[in-house]
Amino acid sequence: MTRYPEILACLQPLLHEQKFHWLVTGAAGFIGSHLTEALLSLGQKVTGLDNFCTGYQRNLDSALKESGRGENFSFVEGSITEIDSCREAMSKGVDFVLHHAALASVPASLKDPVEYEKVNSLGFVNILQVAREFKIKRVVYATSSAVYGDNETMPKVEDEIGKFLSPYAMTKYMNEICAEFFTRVYGLECTGLRYLMSLAGGRIPTEHMRLSFRDGFQR
Length: 219
Hints:
With 219 residues, this protein is α/β, with parallel strands linked by helices. The chain is built from eight helices and six strands.
């Protein structure tokens, strides 16, 4: 298994001579704070966007402390559902967007599908639209293995998906559809990563992630 220090070692020579400005949405979350720490450690400039709905200030504090490069970090407190917050975050000369702001609990999405549609689907369209406005080089976004639904084929094949089992899965697949559209029609480069499960030490998972882990182990 590739470990975190080994990944940093591979990236270091690539980014040593190239200083970029990265927007990390969901920067106070579990994955977002680790990305923030890694990029700052590599001498990159980072802007974080988060509304602390599921993220924690202590995650950000830990990322800044561990990186030792807090002076290269700026923060916008706001939601991806607010297009003006997205514009404020990208107006600072951002080159790349790492989009990880989302509601991420399968059980919670079953209870409140409307909120999941609002945040995960419409919020993502805001990110894409503003990235297009500011001519961002590429949007890398978190999708999910949940889009495979009830397809039990192993190993997983990207184009083989089944019936969705939750509103959360539907919103993540909609993200993929929207990203493909913005690439094909507007020329915005997008890359989606279908995460299975992400765990790393020294950082606090959000309550939504705890619910998802618990639901997965119970099944």
